[in-house]
Fold this protein.
Amino acid sequence: MSAPEVEAIVLVSGGLDSCVALAWAQRQGWRLRALHVSYGQRTEARERAAYEAIADYYQIPASRRLCTSVQYLARIGGSSLTDPSLPVETADLGRSSIPSTYVPFRNTHLLTIAASWAEVVGVNRIVIGAVEADSSGYPDCTRGYYDAFNTLLRVAAARGPIQVETPLIDMRKADIVRLGYELGAPLHLTWSCYKDTVRACGVCDSCALRLRGFAEAGLADPIEYAASPLGRNDSP
Amino acid sequence: MSAPEVEAIVLVSGGLDSCVALAWAQRQGWRLRALHVSYGQRTEARERAAYEAIADYYQIPASRRLCTSVQYLARIGGSSLTDPSLPVETADLGRSSIPSTYVPFRNTHLLTIAASWAEVVGVNRIVIGAVEADSSGYPDCTRGYYDAFNTLLRVAAARGPIQVETPLIDMRKADIVRLGYELGAPLHLTWSCYKDTVRACGVCDSCALRLRGFAEAGLADPIEYAASPLGRNDSP
């Protein structure tokens, strides 16, 4: 007798981490669904294109994809990712405060959409590529946050248990890059930049974290950059 | 010296409970903001009109109101409140299962929007008129649920504490009606029906709970009904 099939909703932003999280879920042998949520961020169209390309790569049919929007987050404002009047900070990976790119409670919105979908279609796993160890210092990327969210799910799930899995939570970016390579994840299809939509800027927090990860892993980043604070991939 | 002013975001659906919760927050002396979230439900336009009328009554200016939509809940489906192909059940207040009107994780979506807004504008109270004692059996209307959500807020709030208040959680509907009368809440402006948009149907769960509440409180419901399972307010 074979074990019952596990089905998982994977949050796929189009970035590096969520692509590796999807590859990880596939390696578990889980049947995959892909959820993408735009929230009025600057690079939304580019991220969505990356999401579609990654979902195509894993042959996830349209009936198992959900693409939604929480545009009210842009209306509420408060983040340089969604408010064009606020500049995106240049990388400062050593800063101790929460950066301007933080979107208040963003991951709670994303996970709650995943939970609603999970309950309606009868899925009991949600996978998110959140990273605590080497992140930008967002409070919704900590293990404590996911423990609290899973406690909420135990109380609020009406039709069977739903559990959020965070396979990358304790990894550093270099580990994630290595894991992505090992799993054959299509990292060339991913998009991480907070600023631009044609070539990654190379200088925002997200680009800087990604570039440092590839450098520490000793692997080449397959995407193109306009500039790099680490002196790699500088383009004319 | 006067105490520092407390400011609260009150979730105002347009129904009886949220109207009384708003009246309660006003009685605390708190500065009020009103949040209304539509989620693709059948009676959305009617509920929104009730919300606007109630916010007008309390003289909440437009700058302190936020009206948003989580239309993806209707796309995800699974509830007779948002899916026209599913019938709204006739009231059965004694049933033990979760009724078809349940929208998976609805209150988590609403509270997370309130939390994002609270963090951006620097508010530290959120008020919701959730009721456990005399409700339709939704898992997101229990004290345990709000305890878990407040735990999540303690972990996820990045710019100071945010606390959800549930002043009605242990009240029965009759107590809420009485409290509304005591506080001078504009109950004539509220809308509770799940089915209709001109005259309340009188037979859905929500109408049945409301009518029973007024009957037990010995007070007249100031809104009109098309029919009533309790034999009150029957119209030709």
